[in-house]
């Protein structure tokens, strides 16, 4: 949703407020950075997350200073950035980055309903490793009591996207410098079994 | 350097303050998230950067709201996270992430010396694409006037690192669930030349 604090001063043409764009970036990203204010100072923590409908969930230890600092409704700025490629132009000035990013302005809501907590933990686990939750033993009450789940509304989220090749100045186009895009790719490596693993690699990891 | 605001409340054993660890993470990462406070609200922007000795540099348009918000010495929290792998345990609770992250608490210093500005732009360009700067035409005075370079001291930086396999509870070790690490890998894809490119791919991109 476009609000004064989600309206950029620069390159507004790169900004999107449609949920399809915002959700697709959040669903593809694995980690976000949660920024908050503590005693007037900016603080930031990278963490895992998951989206469900118009809410984003994170979790942490009930004793975590970070979690305790924001769980009572603090304002946060959550950012996710997918770097897709480096854009090489013929001048340093025209170099750029192809990226898809989302910024969410929201207040933390502590999830107190046990079934919503469990659902959020399921979502976070399966967001990182689709199919994992069904393969795990049940979470215990003790584990749940040690875990805080926080929810954030996506009502005030915006996306920023750059795609395509370089845009050189007309006067630079004929320079004999290579211009184009170097894609950045993220992939899964070969799984490394734990020393005490006794199972075959499951199909959802293959 | 360890100060009250770089001392974590959780998992202190994962925290490092040595410059070798901090610098190696900053030198491997490509993008950081700069968090700052605007009218009491947390804000965050992903951007490129480079490290030189004990300073970190970013740049932006002189007209950027972000740059103008912090250039007069605002406190920032700069975070860089390298995600190395997902750590799969036999319980959801014991799942983890292998990562290397750095958090820098600092005040923005606007670089006014023209040669330091140019040097910082060289560093940022060559940090993303080693060898690129030497292949580019000279930056013009007009381009320099449109660009603000900010420097940040690394005196108050800390690193947090997790490596290795899962640590399951003793009671879970014999469960028939696959346990281990799924590495996350980032790589460069095949370069895509611009429509107006007339150059061979240079060796530093090969």
Automatic annotation (TrEMBL), chains A, B:
InterPro entries per the UniProt record, alphabetical: Pyridox_Oxase-rel, Split_barrel_FMN-bd
UniProt-listed Gene3D superfamilies: Electron Transport, Fmn-binding Protein, Chain A
Matches recorded under Pfam families: Pyridox_ox_2
UniProt feature coiled coil, ranges: none
SUPFAM superfamilies: FMN-binding split barrel
Entry superkingdom: Bacteria
UniProt protein name: Pyridoxamine 5'-phosphate oxidase-related FMN-binding protein
Origin species: Fibrella aestuarina BUZ 2
């Amino acid at each position: 949703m476009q609000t004064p604090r989600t309206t950029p001063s620069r390159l507004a043409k790169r900004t999107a407020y449609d949920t399809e764009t915002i959700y697709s970036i959040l669903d593809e990203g694995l980690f976000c950075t949660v920024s908050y204010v503590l005693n007037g100072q900016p603080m930031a923590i990278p963490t895992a997350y998951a989206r469900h409908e118009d809410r984003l969930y994170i979790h942490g230890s009930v004793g975590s200073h970070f979690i305790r600092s924001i769980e009572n409704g603090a304002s946060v700025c959550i950012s996710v950035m997918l770097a897709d490629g480096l854009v090489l132009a013929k001048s340093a000035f025209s170099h750029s980055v192809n990226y898809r990013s989302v910024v969410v302005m929201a207040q933390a809501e502590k999830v107190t309903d046990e079934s919503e907590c469990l659902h959020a933990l399921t979502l976070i686990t399966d967001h990182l490793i689709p199919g994992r939750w069904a393969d795990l033993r049940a979470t215990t009450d003790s584990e749940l009591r040690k875990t805080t789940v926080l929810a954030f509304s996506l009502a005030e989220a915006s996306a920023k996207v750059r795609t395509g090749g370089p845009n050189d100045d007309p006067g630079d186009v004929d320079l004999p410098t290579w211009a184009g895009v170097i894609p950045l790719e993220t992939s899964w490596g070969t799984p490394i079994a734990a020393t005490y693993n006794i199972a075959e690699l499951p199909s959802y990891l293959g």
